[in-house]
Design a protein that fits this description.
Blueprint lengths: L1 H11 L7 H14 L1 H4 L6 E4 L2 E3 L1 H4 L14 H6 L8 E3 L34 H37 L1 H15 L3 H12 L3 H27 L3 H8 L4 H9 L4 H24 L11 H10 L7 H31 L1
Antiparallel strand pairs: 1-2, 1-3
Helix pairs in contact: 2-6, 2-14, 6-7, 6-9, 6-12, 7-9, 8-9, 9-12, 12-13, 12-14, 13-14
């Protein structure tokens, strides 16, 4: 009687995206993807002398256009009169990550700036939101690339076996010999501030996790009775692999991706904290933490506490998501 009870309990569970950790993960993804539209000192949409402009969207492709009349966009927006034909729609949080205010030099949390300002008078909340974009963009790209490459090699090695399995496993062993942090430091010293370079380096370190998991699972699945029956029915090996076996590995791949995402965020933050990597040219939680740690002895606690909390919260979220996905997959077996 225990199995029906377990299945009934599992069926009553909320979908993962409706749980607290799922909502937090979705919020971080939204902040990362929409950072230029959520916190910026340039308008989402503006009409200047009858011409339409979308400066905040231009942030995705480079720098936004300069403001009209030799003013910044925010200065121009603040001077618009009630009867003006021109208008602008500002983001929900009208502070940019690079907008400075000398009067708010290292200012603590206030009503106007709930998380305070940093050593250059920049809004900490705006920098945290854009830091999520850096972490999600670099980490997510690296994990996606590693997942595609590692899953492909692991699937071919585990299902085909033979010389391909030997070659893939030797490659895995070679890449596992590299200490992650030292390899990242060495690669960053060669590639400089290249975001693409960092993504490729992290992907080259994380693909082994996907390859090992997928290979190990397929070594067991390929000997199951339903696979033998499918072969007897004349179904092609390619269809058996990609249409019947790989869908069974969604949970394992998802768990691996969550753990790799946590590692990627820690790696990017570590490089930025040490003063190297692409995080120096953009808002990065590691860069913010380094700047806050330099003045921690002066009592400016808000400069290091909030980026630390962001890193810890996102990494814990990835680990909890991995644990939830794994437990749900176990209950469905």
């Amino acid at each position: 009687m225990s199995q029906p009870v377990v299945l009934a309990t599992a069926s009553r569970r909320k979908p993962l995206w409706r749980t607290g950790v799922g909502v937090f993960a979705a919020l971080m993804i939204v902040c990362g993807v929409l950072a230029p539209l959520l916190a910026n000192n340039v308008p989402l949409c503006a009409r200047v002398a009858g011409q339409w402009s979308f400066p905040a969207f231009a942030d995705y492709f480079g720098s936004p256009p300069p403001g009209p009349n030799d003013l910044s966009w925010k200065q121009w927006w603040s001077r618009l009169g009630p009867g003006s034909q021109d208008f602008a729609i500002m983001p929900p949080w009208a502070y940019g990550p690079g907008e400075t205010d000398p009067a708010l030099y290292r200012a603590g949390p206030s009503f106007a700036h709930p998380l305070g300002n940093d050593g250059a008078g920049r809004d900490v909340l705006a920098r945290l939101i854009h830091g999520a974009g850096t972490a999600i963009g670099l980490g997510g790209s690296a994990v996606l690339l590693a997942g595609l490459f590692g899953t492909l090699l692991g699937a071919l090695a585990g299902y085909r076996r033979g010389w391909l399995d030997v070659v893939v496993m030797r490659l895995v062993e070679i890449f596992l010999c590299f200490p992650i942090l030292l390899f990242l430091l060495f690669a960053s010293s060669l590639l400089g501030d290249s975001s693409l370079g960092l993504v490729l380096v992290m992907a080259s370190l994380f693909w082994t996790s996907f390859a090992r998991i997928v290979r190990g699972e397929l070594l067991s699945l390929r000997e199951r009775d339903f696979v033998l029956v499918a072969r007897g029915l004349g179904i092609s090996e390619r269809r058996i692999l990609w249409h019947h076996l790989m869908p069974l590995l969604k949970s394992q791949i998802g768990v691996t991706a969550a753990f790799c995402m946590a590692s990627a965020i820690v790696a990017e933050s570590t490089l930025s904290f040490l003063g190297i990597g692409p995080g120096q040219a953009a808002s990065s939680w590691g860069n913010m933490l380094r700047q806050g740690s330099d003045v921690a002895y002066l009592g400016h606690w808000h400069m290091w506490l909030f980026p630390t909390a962001a890193i810890v919260a996102v990494v814990m979220c990835c680990h909890v998501l991995a644990d939830r996905v794994r437990s749900r997959a176990t209950e469905q077996v």
